[in-house]
Amino acid sequence: MDLGLKGRVALVAAASKGLGRAIADALAVEGASLVICARGRDELEAAKRSIESRTGANVHAIVADVADADQLAKLAAEALAKWGRIDVLVTNSGGPPSGPAETHDWQRWDDAVKLLLRSTVELTRAMLPGMRERKWGRIINVTSIAVKQPVDNLILSNSIRSAVTGFARTLANEVATDGVTVNNILPGYTRTERVEQLADATAAREGLTRKDIVARFEAQIPMRRLGEPKEFAALAAFLASEQASYITGQSIAVDGGWIRSLL
């Protein structure tokens, strides 16, 4: 299927590894030009070279921490200066610390808001006017299964990612007549560094090993395995496509059946 992304320009945040990297790969394969960002220069440049060599895509890399307001503004300005427009915006970041409510002071809550909510809102605010003017745009937010079924010991993620969901669902209605879609993708337990970190944190609390905790995760998933980043990225590429023009305001899980709710 031709997804109609040739000639489009996408900004993918936190794209040096994990889910962001997989999404950048998938969009590049479909012919999109890319702006990618991450905090670490070496990993980011390695990702840029790899994507370019394997796909032939044009990739512009910007070192930026999306939790930092000044760096966020620089990222948006440089991305627009490079290509003149962004057609597909993929908001993404690492996750906040794990742990129950009493382990987090307000500074950690504030940091989580900056990382998850403000980064999404500010990147959207920067790219949305051009999308509305051109009558075409795709905003895709990487959130978490935790917004539909809270995950134990992830109170920061459960709470702040839910705020992102509310923002996106409301925005979807506001921009629907402008040809701009807004959707969230909810990764389940996927084979990424973030899941390894969560497994390690749980293992340390309980005196177990990472292998024990991953086995516990897998036992909760009907497919009995972790997801692969490329499986998640396939949905992102579709939601960015011409064919997904009538899908908006949705939060779609890629979780192997982990969420037990009907909707």
Walkthrough of the structure:
The protein is α/β, with parallel strands linked by helices. It has eight helices and seven strands, in the order βαβαβαβαβαβαααβ. Helix 1 links the parallel strand 1 and strand 2.
Any descriptors?
7 strands, globular, seven-stranded parallel beta sheet, 263 residues, single chain, alpha/beta
Set down the secondary structure blueprint:
Elements: E1 9-12, H1 18-29, E2 33-38, H2 41-55, E3 59-63, H3 69-83, E4 88-91, H4 106-134, E5 137-142, H5 155-175, E6 180-187, H6 193-206, H7 210-220, H8 229-239, E7 251-254
Parallel strand pairs: 1-2, 1-4, 2-3, 4-5, 5-6, 6-7
Helix pairs in contact: 1-2, 1-8, 3-4, 4-5, 6-7
Order of helices and strands: EHEHEHEHEHEHHHE
Oligomeric state of this protein = single chain
Helix content: 40-55%
Catalogue the unreliable spans.
none
Structural class estimated from helices and strands: alpha/beta
Mean pLDDT: 96
- The termini sit apart by 28 Å
The gross shape turns out to be globular
Compute the number of helices.
8
Please give the largest β-sheet: 7 strands, parallel
Question: Which strand-content bin applies to the residues?
Answer: 5-15%
- In what order do the strands lie side by side in the largest sheet? 3-2-1-4-5-6-7
Number of strands: 7
Q: Cα-atom Rg, whole angstroms? A: 18 Å
